[in-house]
Design a protein that fits this description.
By secondary structure, the chain is of the alpha/beta class. The protein has three domains: 4-217, HUPs (Rossmann fold); 244-317, Tyrosyl-Transfer RNA Synthetase; 331-408, Structural Genomics Hypothetical 15.5 Kd Protein In mrcA-pckA Intergenic Region, Chain A, CATH 3.10.290. Helices cover 43% and strands 15% of the residues. The chain contains 19 helices and 15 strands. The chain has a six-stranded mixed β-sheet, with helices on both faces. Strands 9-15-14-11-12 form a five-stranded mixed β-sheet. A two-stranded antiparallel sheet has the order 7-8. A hairpin with a 3-residue loop joins strand 14 and strand 15 (402-408). The longest helix is centred in the C-terminal third of the chain and has 17 residues, at 286-302. It is globular.
């Protein structure tokens, strides 16, 4: 089996590492590693995919991943990458979010039979005695060194609360706890976590005279310079109730040509030889590579069946298949009485969530960007009713790629 450090490096996962040679040697034998996940919202998103895929690669190559839900640290709030303090959440809110995240991670990682662990740091952080913590852990931290960390330094201008200042100590304590309880010797995370990871490796060195390691991933942006997973509509969620498999597929199939090889490497499990072959495609053939990216990424997150449905729906909508409209196309259900009486087009486009506001819908229609069953709308107040039903539904389109099927409930 190949060395997982080489695999992650070749695929573009590694930004910083404590000691590349030692990490390669560590990866030659089964090692336990961990990544923390923030439960301040009830769903992970595409921006979380890189650490999730890294844990999946670790498992596929014989290592034991720990997915650590930050139920305890979320009560404090990580200042990394934030310009202001996060709202303080209740324990009940955090616990509910943590349960949803567990379900999502289980699609990527096999937690059966001890092949991986899912833990919540609230289980050990919540019962800490503050005085004991300061005496045993706090004394190993230099305030000067902490303030030199980018995550703290960036916040000094806008204000860093004392509760946030404790976050580095708690994350370092997590690493030591996992090292002591599970022989965990590797922490992975985003590049904004580098200072926190180093704090953990240093704490274990000081308290246990042991060498452990850290590895960070680069911040992924598209070729257009936008942050991965961000669109004009907001985040692309892993929860199908928030982002449907069809919408998830569309996010990937519409990536820029320049990003395809990099995203195939990071967000699919295809062999690198196959990825290079797809990357060599030119002109119109690059669309096939995009379809492969979208299909594989959607299959990993939502299952092969949902991915195939999404591809079929996409091909139907964009002219590659002529069969009836797939159920995977996002659907807006409307009361039969309402559509029977007729709905002005600008109202229906807003209610079906094709436009954020009615003013935006009016503008879209007046500029010629709105379609009903493939025909351009001529007036903002054109009435849409049962006469527009085609095969039991009405197909609305905003611009070139945004579709909604309207069906009677």
């Amino acid at each position: 089996m190949d060395n997982v450090f080489e695999i992650l490096d070749e695929r573009g996962f590694i930004e910083q590492a404590t000691d590349r040679e030692s990490l390669w040697e560590l990866s030659e034998k089964p090692v336990t590693c961990y990544i923390g996940f923030d439960p301040t919202v009830g769903s992970l998103h595409v921006g979380n995919l890189m650490p999730i895929m890294a844990l999946a690669h670790m498992q596929m190559n014989g290592h034991i991943p720990i997915a650590l839900i930050g139920g305890g640290t979320a009560l404090v709030g990580d200042p990394s990458g934030k310009t202001e303090i996060r709202p303080i959440m209740t324990k009940e809110e955090i616990d509910k979010n943590a349960e949803e995240i567990k379900k999502q991670l289980s699609r990527f990682i096999d937690f059966s039979s001890g092949k991986a662990l899912m833990l919540n740091n609230a289980d050990w952080l919540s019962d800490l005695n503050y005085i004991d913590f300061l005496r045993t852990i706090g004394r190993h931290f230099s305030v000067n060194r902490m303030l030199a960390a980018e995550s703290y330094r960036a916040r000094m201008k806008t204000g860093l609360s004392f509760i946030e200042f404790n976050y580095m100590l708690l994350q370092a304590y997590d690493f030591r706890y996992l090292f002591k309880q599970y022989e965990c010797r590797l922490q992975l995370g985003g590049n904004d976590q580098w200072g926190n990871i180093l704090a953990g490796t240093d704490l274990i060195r000081r308290m246990d005279s042991e060498i452990v390691h850290g590895l960070t991933f680069p911040l992924i942006t598209t070729s257009a310079g936008t942050k991965m997973g961000k669109t004009h509509q907001g985040a692309i969620w892993l929860d199908p109730a928030s982002t449907s498999p069809y919408e998830y597929y569309q996010y990937w199939v519409n990536q820029n040509d320049k990003d395809i090889v990099r995203f195939l490497s990071l967000f699919t499990f295809l062999p690198m030889g196959e990825i290079k072959r797809l990357g060599a495609l030119q002109d119109a053939d690059i669309r096939y590579a995009k379809e492969v990216l979208a299909l594989e990424a959607t299959a990993i997150c939502h299952g092969r069946e949902e991915a195939e449905k999404a591809r079929r729906a996409s091909r139907q909508l964009f002219g590659k298949e002529d069969s009836g409209l797939s159920e995977a196309v996002p659907t807006f259900h409307i009361d039969e009485t309402v559509i029977k009486n007729g709905v002005p087009a600008y109202i229906l486009f807003e209610e079906a969530d094709l436009c954020a506001t009615r003013s935006e819908a009016r503008r879209l229609i007046s500029q010629g960007g709105a379609y009903v069953n493939g025909k351009k709308l001529g007036a903002v107040d054109q009435v849409i009713d049962l006469n527009d039903m085609d095969g039991g539904s009405i197909l609305l389109r905003a611009g070139k790629k945004k579709y909604i099927r309207v069906a009677v409930k």
